[in-house]
Amino acid sequence: MNKPLLLAAAVVCGFSAHGNAATFAYISSPGDGMISQYRLDENNGALKLVNQVNAGDQVNPMALSPDGKTLFAALRVKPFQVQGFSIDPTSGHLTPQSKAPLAESMAYLATDRAGRYLLAASYGADTLSVQPVDKADKILTYKTGPHAHSLRTDPSNRFAYAGNLGADHVLQYRFDADTGALTPIGTGYVSVPANTGPRHLAFSANGKYLYVVGEMSGTVTAFSIDDRSGALTPIGVANGIPDRLKLAHGEVRDARNNDLKDDPTPRIWAADLRLSPDGKLLLMSERTSSSVSAFAVDAATGGLRFLDNYPVEEKQPRNIAFSPNGQWLLVTGEKSDTVGTYAVSDTGALKRVSEAPSGKGALWIEVLHTAAK
């Protein structure tokens, strides 16, 4: 039943020799099971909804293959599965190909840098998984502390790191690109202050630094990466929550109390973290205040400096994503009817320039630029 998930890439012979360059965004919305395809005009930031496909109940995290030919989407209802879609090289439209099992309900999905393995993190099952996309039922699993929330390989594809929210650990591994196996580096983790809640990750392009957002603290911790061992060393912390937001420290959330309905206190609830293509800006989304915080990045030292926090119109923004040229930011809101495009200034200031209808509970964004041939 489960064909290789790389089938989608195999049936595509490459981007059209006569196609024009285009930028597409794919956004999952678990509330209606849809993946919406948008076209982004990188000249002016205009966003247009062009197509939707029914991906399945509770479609949530997604990942693009490095060659841009396949989109993977995780379904968070039993039986837990990943759906592979081929991407039309001209129109960007998605065509469902094969499905494969997932180890658990996954909150995070990525591929390794070569596109051979699918990496996933399960928040509820405290588990990381690695599976080859050509034999996707061969799944390696690794237990973590409470609430694993991300898993990515570094730019060299030699190391892998994971945010372990409930344990206040950033997990560190050697990654075997031949087998997909993860081997702990040293103790297997570095600690951050209690109740930080390590969540999503971002790497500097040169692979020297790792940035980790704290869901409950609203801080970003910077780490240097040892080029030989992959071991992490903390080099600084920047706070992205100004006093004017009047947010109390966050709490650990799960399926039983995700919205903290019995707690009226506005609390920090940071989510996504994205580095600009030029490596000079780091942006963090914060859900309670419906805002995005900007940090300046020192490329030489890896250090961070908080710039400011900017409100967005999308309520409860989950994922954010830069356009390939770095001039625009896409923002989804789990409680918003629209997806917004924002012009990004050199200092990280945001100005909303366009919007398009969103699916229900829109959250995960993947952006693809197809170059003219």
UniProtKB/TrEMBL annotation:
Sorted UniProt keywords: Hydrolase
EC class:
hydrolase
The EC number on file is 3.1.1.-
Protein name (Swiss-Prot/TrEMBL): Lactonase family protein
Q: Which organism is it from?
A: Pseudomonas fluorescens
